[in-house]
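Sample 1 of the test manifest.
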Amino acid sequence: MLKYIARRLLLSIPVIIGITILSFIIMKLSPGDPLANFINPSISMEDLEISRQALGLNDPLFVQYFKWIGQVVRGNFGYTYSGNHSISGLILERLPNTIILTLSAFVLSFVLGIPIGVIAAVRKNTRVDYGLTFFSLVGVAIPSFFFGLLVIYFFALVLGLFPSGGMINIRAGYTGYAYFKDVLHHLILPAIVLSLGNIASVSRFTRSNMLDVLKEDYIRTAKAKGLRNKAIVYKHAFRNALIPVVTIFGLSIPFLFSGAYITESIFNWPGMGQLGITAIQNREYGIIMALNLITATLVLLGNLTSDILYAIVDPRIRH
Amino acid sequence: MKPSNTTPGSPLPSNKKPLLQVKDLSVKFRTEEGMFFAVEHISFDLEEQKTLAIVGESGSGKSVTSLAIMQLLAENGKITSGEIFIDDEDILKLSQRQVQHSILGKKISMIFQEPMTALNPILKVGEQIMETIIEHQGASRKEAYAIALDTLKQVGIPSPEQRIKQYPHELSGGMRQRVMIAMGLVTKPKIMIADEPTTALDVTIEAQILNLLENLKETYKTAILFVTHDLNVVADIADDVIVMYCGEIIEKGPVADIFETPRHPYTIGLLATMPSLDNDNDILPTIRGVVPNITKRPTGCYFHPRCDHAMPQCAQRSPAVFQVGQQAVKCFLYEQDALGVQDGPGVQDGPGAGEVNHG
């Protein structure tokens, strides 16, 4: 098992290198100029050319790439064009916030999605099933920016149950447990909005897997043994139905992570999404590439997690 | 093809009380074209330590009959009439919970055809055997483990201490079927249904499994309902035989009588298709035509379009069941015979005629 994980990790290295090259090239091919923001009538073309030269933007592409990657492997993502802030610093400042939001949404999608799917499958073609199916379809179909606004309108403005945005009540200056409670209070709405689509797809996936498994011969065997319905559904069917669901465990990490861009913007959540959107608007190549790299690494880790979990739940793969 | 393990003429309706009694069982299936009978008016008794074989082609309703007894019919199947008595209790009148609690796995168990798909791939075989014991006998895990280990030994699994910790995919086909049998045996049920338990296995393993079943029947005094399409297996293992065609029992009797003097033209045809060593024919005889689809059954006797002895009345109404010696036959040829007037012409003309000898 450890050997398997080590081998998978080693195999990821060339993939990551490939990703860095691709994201670098795409960045360079995309239109726009990082210096466009600074253009004003008092700056001459010569001065712009000097800054361009100083920032290394005129170097050959491969030189630029190796300069960049050389820094990245040392954990330094470079500095922003405007203000000369450390990109690593900017990211580290916001990464924990995004992780809090993404992780909550992740937990929500499976804690709610899996039971919803199981209930729908066990109650197949009943009103309960139809109701849950309707909920899932709405959940998949509704765009998060729209759902986010609806939620803010009803729960924050009309009912006043939750704050409409932000992560903490800055004026209150909470510490300790009160701080935690305050963050949680701010977290609930964005986490629900971010996880809605995922809850819906996890529940649909679980439902169809459960239905497939319930038709299997070994379920008939379990019934023939006179086991209780509970044992048939949870011990025999559910565990088998969970095997494919585990695959989307890993895959939904990058999905939620990128979904956080939009949710963070709606709820003014101080995470990487906000940082990314500003970076794209200002052509801050360094930040965008750093975010690309982090997201790609998450995809790889997500896949690896899926495979490892797969091996844990399915004895046929373990060998 | 003479079976040697039974005495011809042994009395079929014995004084023993049947363990399993099926009375007038009918099952309908819902299809896109409407509701159709999968089996009709099935009745039979199964006594202690006896093996009753249900023989028929695919679609004859033999598996549906066994699944109906276990109440494991697919969603679109429904028992429309009949009674199923186990220990004088009509199990069709019990609730689902009662059937699970006191019948299935306890008084009656079932062995399935494909031991690979019939075992749960992600549970160790020990766990799959133990859960039945824990459920029905309220045993502790430790006790259940000991019983499971002992049962694995009984079904001839080598080094059971290792096997009990393995997953189904780590075992060979024959071993898996032994595990299935151990699972069915572990609570010592009085009745065992074996639905083509050897069809998925190769011939040498098949013989081993059949021997095992035979021995276990002696040891545990189990009654076995053996569903198969393989007449050689029937000759090997059965005491009594039921021949099914299109969801009906068309002939029923002791195995020796059925094999020596088959009465129904279908049974005669079926036995003629058995390859045998003393037959010089290069071409195996076949029954002309095919089994009609469940939705397109003919009128009258279901077999008449394929029957060489069909009479005008065969197409009009379904024959009654006539008793000829030890055998019950659903065929007009024996209408007179049953009254003691004459022999059925089917027997004289049929391929089995050489062996016919009526007393």
